Amino acid sequence: MPESIDAVVANQQVRAARHHIERSDENTLARQAALSAIPAPTGAEAARGAHLADLFREAGLGDVAVDEVGNVTGWLGARREEPVVLSAHLDTVFAEGLDVSVARSGARLAGPGISDNARGLAALVTVAEALVRSRVSTVRPVRFTATVGEEGHGDLRGVRHLLDRSRPHAFIALDGAGIERIVHRALGARRYRVTYRGPGGHSWAAFGVANPANAVGRATALLADLLTHHVPRPAGSPLGRTTCAVVRLGGGTGLNSIPQEAWFDLDLRSEEPRALVQLDETVQGILARALTEENSHRTAGTPPLQLDLRRVGDRPSGLTPRAHPLVQTAIAATRALGRSHELSCASTDANVPIALGVPAIALGAGGHAGDAHLPTEWYENVDGPLGVVRALLVTAAMAEVR
User: Fold this and answer.
1) C-beta of residue 397 within 8 angstroms of C-beta of residue 3
2) Which positions ≥6 away from 332 have C-beta within 8 Å?
3) Is the dihedral of CA 397, 166, 146, 42 positive or negative?
């Protein structure tokens, strides 16, 4: 069982660590801006990871290393099984070549990725530094980890690799800004590239062959009419939000050619694993129906279209129960800082440990933010240290501070 928050807050070393966080607020902001200004598209996080490893060493963590996929890890306490993991993801949604410089105006920092997740990374380093310098001692070791591949097509690659090799006692992800939110429900997602292929041809001379673009149109129209809350759910499945969205499409080579292929990307999401499976089955039936309908309109004797359905992402869903000590500790820590808590659902690195049965949550790292995933993203350091202190308290409690 974790230490009570009252005991953790009263602990002399933890109090010293909290004071360090509060005194280091400007240093945390400077780290946040510096990390944000290092490009880190999903799959190209090495430069930011190298800088993070240097920061871990400067903070005083032991056994700092970069693993095979690019995750950066450092340890507080002797390295052993079942640590408490405090993590933040390295990557951003932004493509290579985008200007990721940071502008500051008063309490506001602006730049792509400044909150998601430069804030989480900066808080991760500050918590490590505070624990080391204040000589906080814990029963369980704390493993500080910056993961790769959390966003988009990364499909949680870094945390999957991390948990392939060990099972932590508890997992806490720092993701973006905020102080009230506690993510304990993992939003599952399945993502597909849907491609229809056919013979193609001249738009006049070959007219009548099955057209992949028409199949895409038929499929997207059927999907648009799909009321996801009316998708049949397995018996006993709790009610929860389920969504299906066409997020990208393309195909064709010219204005006077029937395309040989046309494609679109699908994003299916649900809070409940069985509901996501049911939605997936329903959607696959729709895609097959669109194929059949387009083929039924083709000129006799011409080749039929083929459907290629390729899964490009699979994020598991599930939850850490509200009554679990990890969630209750996060609630208590939020209240101890004079704030109301908000239990919520999101897709974060915590999805993977939750699906594996490891207690996991995601927390904001303080302050306010907006325009997430846009080049105009911003962060305002309003009560910023409180988010870092909350991460400190939850980590110290779960690691059982001495």
Assistant:
1) yes
2) 4, 5
3) negative
Q: Which tens digits make up the pLDDT trace of 113-158? A: 999 999 999 999 999 999 999 999 999 999 999 999 999 899 999 9
d(CA 99, CA 356): 38
With a CB cutoff of 8 Å and minimum separation 6, the contacts of 394 are 172, 326, 329, 330, 333, 363
* Per-residue pLDDT tens over the stretch 41-58: 999 999 999 999 999 999
What is the number of alpha carbons within 13 Å of residue 317 lying toward its C-beta?
21
CA distance 313 to 315: 6
Is the distance from CB of 110 to CB of 367 less than 8 angstroms? no
pLDDT digits (tens, 9 = 90+) for 93-115: 999 999 999 999 888 999 999 99
Q: Do 302 and 210 form a contact (C-beta atoms < 8 A)?
A: yes
Q: Tokens 């806490």 correspond to what residue?
A: 172
User: DSSP per residue over 135-155, as a string?
Assistant: T--BSS-EEEEEES--SGGGT
- CA dist., res. 118 & res. 125, Å (int): 11
Cis before 71? omega within 30? no
- Tell me the two tokens of residue 373: 């995933």
Phi/psi of residue 53, nearest 5 degrees: -60, -40
β-bridge pairing 170-174 and 84-89: parallel
Nearest to 388 by CA among 62, 28, 63, 44: 28
Question: 398 and 329 in contact (C-beta within 8 Å)?
Answer: yes
Name, in order, each residue with C-beta under 8 angstroms of 243's C-beta and a sequence gap of 6 or more: 228, 267, 268, 269, 270
List of residues 6+ apart from 279 with CB closer than 8 A? 228, 231, 242, 244, 268, 270
- Which residues lie across from 270 on neighbouring strands? 188, 242
Q: Which residues of 290-317 are buried (b: 16+ CB within 10 A; e: fewer)?
A: bbeebbeebeeeeeebebeeeeebebbb
What angle do the packed helices 118-133 and 12-23 form, to 10 degrees? 130
As a whole number of angstroms, the longest Cα–Cα distance in the chain is 83
Helix (H, G, I), strand (E, B) or coil at 334: helix
